[in-house]
Design goal:
alpha/beta
Length: 106
């Protein structure tokens, strides 16, 4: 009787490196989106623009928003964003929202 082989089989599966969650989604079409500064948003508010009406702030953080959020923003974790885009587009278009700003803490 032969002793069992201790060398790995050449047919053993090679473990794949773990991918980040966003690797499952298409690459963004705009690789350099325009940034909106805090001072710009403050100026919009001073000029009388209304969050949720003139613009929408979408907080993409999942759990690190415990320190607070921007008043009038909606929380939609980045992990669920891609599947929600058609619904968001329909809602924001129907409400005639012209600006949508996505933000996170990263």
């Amino acid at each position: 009787m032969e002793a069992p082989s201790t060398t790995p089989s050449s047919t053993a599966p090679v473990p794949k490196p773990e991918q980040p969650w966003h690797a499952a989604y298409p690459t963004p079409r705009n690789s350099d989106p325009r940034a909106v500064t805090r001072s710009e948003i403050l100026q919009w508010l001073k000029d009388g623009q209304v969050p949720g009406q003139d613009f929408v702030l979408v907080d993409l953080r999942r759990a690190d928003h415990e320190g607070g959020t921007i008043r009038g923003s909606i929380n939609l974790p980045a992990q669920s964003l891609y599947a929600s885009i058609p619904t968001l587009y329909t809602l924001f278009s129907a409400a005639e929202v012209k600006k949508v700003i996505f933000y996170c803490g990263a």
